[in-house]
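Weekly sync notes, structure subgroup
Attendees: PM, AL, DS (notes)

Item 1: joint prediction request from the bench team. They want all two components modeled as one assembly rather than separately. Inputs as received:
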Amino acid sequence: MFGSLLFLPWWFTVIAAIAFLAYFNAYEILFWGLFGDFLYSASVTEFFNFQFIFVSLFTLLFIGAYFLKKRLIFYNV
Amino acid sequence: MMSNYLLHHKEKGKHLFTKAFVGVLLVALILALVQIVFPKSLSGVSNFVSAPFWKSKNFAVSKIVNSAGLLRSKKALIEANNDLKAQIESNDLVLLSLDLFKEENIRLKELFDRQIPDTEDSVLGVVLARPSASMYDTLIIDVGSGSGVRKDNYVYIAGDIFIGKIDEIYKKTSLVRLFSSPGEVTQVGVGLESISANAEGIGGGNFIAKLPRGIGIEEGDIVTMPDVSLKVFAVVEEIDADPSDPFLTALFKNPVNINDIKWVQVITNR
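Output from the run, pasted for the record:
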C-alpha cells in the first residue's frame, strides 16, 4: 500500500485497498488513507475545503466490506 | 448440557472486531484533528519519509531509460538523432521570432508607460509525485523553504505556461495546487482580445468556462492570465454552443500533459 500510494495512480491504491479488505480485516487501510491525505491533500473547494478524501473513502469501504462479509457465506464474521 | 463454545466464541470475535474498528477509527480521528490544528506537522513528516523513495524511483527510472537506449540499433539511433537535430533547428528559428516579439512587446509597453515586471527570480524543481498519484490534482516538487520558495508563488512549465501555485511548503519539498483542481476558479483572458472569463478547474489540466455567445472565440485560441506578462494559461479545446442558450461553454486545456511533466519552475518573487 505504501508503494502504491507513492508510485502508482490513486485508483490502483483504491483497488489494492479493496483487495486487502476482501482477504483480511485490514484496519490499517485507514492509516494508509490518512497517510495519503497528509501527503497530497489540498482543500477541495467544491466540498467546503474538505481535505480527507482518502481516509473517508477507505472508511466507507471498510464499513461496506464489514457488512458485506456478514452476509456472504465465504466469511466467518 | 450442550456447550455453547462456538456461539460464545463467535460473539466474542464479533465484539473484538467492533472494538478494534472503533479503536482504529478513534486513532485516525485524533490524527486527522492533529493535522487540522497543526497543518504542517504530520504532512511534513509524511513528505520527509516519502521524499527519498520518490528520488530513488526517479533515479532508477532514468537509469533504466538510459540503459534501454543501448538496446536500440545504431541505425535507429542515428535516425532519431538526425530527426532531433532537425527539430532543434526548427525550434531555434521559432524561438528567434518569439524573442523578437517579446522585445517588441516590452518596447510597446514602455511607449504606453506600462510598468514592466522586474526580472523573475525562479527556482527549478523536479516533480516527485504527479497528480495521478492522488485524487487532489496536486504535485509534489523537490524544492521547499530552503530554496526560497514561499506560499502562493506561481509555478510554470517551460517558463511560459502557468500550471499552479505553491499551496504548502516544507523544508525540502512543496505541494503545488494546480489551477485545474476541481472547483478552483481563476480569472483569465481568452483570445487576442483577452476577453475576461472565469475558468473553473475540472481536474487533469482541464477547465470549463461560460462565455456570452457571439464574442468570436475559436478553438485553438490562447488563454492567458490577466496581467501584463505573456504567460500561457491554457488553450481553447472545444466550444459547445446550444442555440437556445445565450451562453456558450468553452473547454480549455493545459497545452502540456500534466501527468508527463518532470521539471517545473517556481517564480520566487511573484
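Discussion: Helices of chain A lie at 2-7, 10-23, 29-40, 53-71.
Action: AL to compare against the crosslinking data before next sync.
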